[in-house]
Specification:
Structural class: mainly alpha
Low-confidence stretches: none
Shape: elongated
Number of helices: 7
Number of strands: 0
Helix content: 55-70%
Distance between the termini: 71 Å
Strand content: under 5%
Largest sheet: none
Radius of gyration: 24 Å
Number of domains: 2
Length: 147
Amino acid sequence: MSARQKPARNSISATSLATLGLCEHQLGLTLRHGDHKATAQQEVFIARGNVAHERSLHAARATPRGAVTDRRCFIATAVYGPEAEQTNALRAWRDRVLMATRRGRLLIRIYYRLSPRVVHVLDRHPSWMPLVRRLLDRLAEVIGVQP
């Protein structure tokens, strides 16, 4: 069994590599304010990460509040239509309220898994459409997203 080798002088730890894979910006902060010095190549990656973060931040600020970012809304689209005011109001509520919480995002994932099946059933049983429309109207009323 060999003895544990001492890391090379300019090496980077596995933890830092994992951080680099997740967030170049975080690694940059660690390298700048921690006890490590970044290599020239790391500085390039840090700069790229900073640019990407700035771009994301700018895009987030440029998107108007309440703007729809995801066009999916299967059941509402089947009931009201893809560009109906009700469909867009429900999408905006999803993006503004549900996406803001962990439970909301879980609910959205479950919805995206189940709703295509619901739409398929509605296609086969169009007589159920008025009932679903009333349920969606009631949901919109309860959550306060009347178009």
